[in-house]
């Protein structure tokens, strides 16, 4: 197991190196002259040249990339061109709302989607199965921002049950913290629930057709024991894999959801940086998001041995 862990950690190095190369190349592959775009239409050639020097566009690509990668290894993601603050400081100020939103969404989606998928598999072909699958199709079809606006209208503006925007830090109390995340978590988790529920149903259908399930039924084991102790345990590896892959949905969806509900997280920071062409911030955010995704997939691989003892590395 330890040797496998070392190999997997080492395998992430070339992945992150490719990501870093692509992120740094954004300055060079972006359409137009980044310095001229940032300077604006009224800028003089001297102003544009100053911005080019500040971005390092007047220096060789490999030299700039080597310097940037070395700073990255030291934890320095650069300095924002508009605020003058370190990118690490900006991310540190905004990371709590985003991580909180992703955590609430993940818990909400798993608690709803896994039992729904199990129930659909157990009642396959019935109206319950069709109803759950119809909701899954709806979850895939409706964009996150549409769900967000509908939830904000009915449960915040019409009913006044939850705040319509903003974020409250955890240190100010658990309920105020959770209250601000209920609607965004539900909106972001809608498509995530659809994904997990469909995979759970498909995997459970395969497992429920196995001989040992029929043997458990013949011995008189109850439905709950068959579904959750025998079937779900053996179907857990594909489900956990999809949950890990779905983290990319959470990262991408957080950008939209935070804009709809005015949550001051990394998603809002990403949009602000893109609008202002703040390349150091964009580069730092892409690197952080990529690192989180790679880390989550590494943890998912390590969870396999706990979920299924037959797996050995």
Describe, in plain words, how this protein is organized in 3D.
The chain has 313 residues and is an all-alpha fold. It has two domains: 2-73; 94-307, MetI-like (MetI-like fold). Helices cover 77% and strands 0% of the residues. The protein is built from 16 helices and no strands. α8 packs across α10.
Task: Outline the secondary-structure elements.
Layout: H1 2-24, H2 26-29, H3 34-39, H4 45-55, H5 61-73, H6 87-122, H7 127-141, H8 144-158, H9 174-179, H10 182-208, H11 211-218, H12 223-234, H13 236-245, H14 247-260, H15 266-276, H16 279-307
* Main sheet attributes: strand count, strand direction, barrel closure: none
Query: Would you state the CATH class of the largest domain?
Result: Mainly Alpha
Query: So, the CATH homologous superfamily of the largest domain?
Result: MetI-like
- Separate helix tally: 16
What shape does the CA trace take?
globular
Overall pLDDT metric: 78
The percentage of residues in β strands lies in: under 5%
Order of helices and strands: HHHHHHHHHHHHHHHH
Q: Percentage of helical residues? A: over 70%
Any key phrases for this structure?
single chain, 313 residues, mainly alpha, MetI-like fold, 16 helices, 77% helix, globular
A few lines on this structure:
The chain is mainly alpha-helical and 313 residues long. 77% of the residues lie in helices and 0% in strands.
């Amino acid at each position: 197991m330890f040797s496998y862990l070392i190999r997997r950690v080492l395998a992430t190095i070339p992945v992150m190196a490719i990501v870093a190369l692509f992120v740094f190349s954004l300055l060079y592959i972006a359409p137009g002259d980044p310095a001229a775009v940032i300077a604006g239409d009224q800028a003089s050639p001297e102003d544009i040249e100053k911005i080019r020097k500040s971005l390092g566009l007047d220096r060789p690509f490999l030299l700039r990339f080597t310097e940037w990668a070395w700073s990255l290894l030291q934890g320095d993601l650069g300095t924002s061109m508009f605020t003058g603050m370190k990118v690490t400081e900006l991310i540190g100020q905004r990371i709590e709302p985003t991580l909180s939103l992703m955590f609430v969404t993940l818990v909400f989606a798993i608690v709803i989607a896994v039992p729904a998928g199990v129930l659909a598999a157990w009642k396959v072909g019935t109206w319950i199965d069709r109803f759950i699958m119809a909701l899954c199709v709806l979850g895939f079809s409706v964009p996150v921002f549409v769900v967000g606006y509908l939830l904000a209208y009915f449960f915040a503006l019409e009913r006044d049950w939850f705040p319509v925007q903003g974020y409250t830090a955890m240190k100010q109390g658990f309920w105020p913290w959770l209250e601000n995340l209920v609607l965004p978590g539900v909106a972001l988790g809608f498509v995530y629930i659809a994904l997990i529920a469909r995979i759970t149903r498909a995997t459970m259908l395969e497992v429920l057709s196995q001989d040992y399930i029929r043997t458990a039924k013949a011995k008189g084991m109850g439905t709950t024991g068959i579904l959750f102790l025998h079937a779900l345990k053996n179907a857990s590896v594909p489900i956990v894999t999809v949950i890990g892959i779905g983290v990319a949905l959470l990262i991408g969806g957080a950008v939209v959801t935070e804009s709809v509900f005015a949550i001051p997280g990394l998603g809002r920071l990403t949009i602000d940086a893109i609008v202002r062409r703040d390349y150091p911030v964009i580069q730092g955010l892409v690197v952080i998001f990529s690192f989180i995704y790679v880390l989550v997939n590494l943890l998912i691989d390590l969870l396999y041995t706990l979920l299924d003892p037959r797996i050995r590395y």
